[in-house]
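To close the section, here is one more complete example, presented without commentary so you can practise reading it yourself. The ligand is zinc ion.
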Amino acid sequence: MIDSDERPLTGGCQCGSVRYEIGAEPLNLYACHCKQCRKQSGSSFGMSLVVPSDSFKLTSGTPKSWQRLTDQGSEMTCWFCPGCGSRIYHQSSSWPDQLSVKGGTVDQPVEAGAAIHIWTSHGLPSTPIPVGATTFPFEPDD
Ligand SMILES: [Zn+2]
Ligand SMILES: [Zn+2]
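Output:
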């Protein structure tokens, strides 16, 4: 999932004031093409590297948050750098023991080809998806 042996995983925002460490191996990697993820990323999909909540530690800076309700009725808290606006991580009230770090903020290269693509039916036209990738037109059922 990560194309590097360097541990712990580290990362941060675009301006560098918010920094974090991840002290465990990631659990999953998603590329989500839903409208919310397109808005938050400003791109054709959002990348979520799912990690155990207790493995994520801020090492500098103080992110700000805002909250939104998901279609399933849970509360999603979205953390971002107040200086540069980079989205850093999301936490859902339905999954308190996990959080999703935005893939592009990780210093070590996230293996984009390993991502599970979800909400592909809501993606931008002609967004490339690797051949052989696991895809779901909507949210997977688990
Ligand atoms: Zn920043
Ligand atoms: Zn999404």
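Once you have examined the tokens, check your reading against these statements. Residues 117 and 129 are 8 Å apart (CA to CA). DSSP finds one helix and ten strands in the chain.
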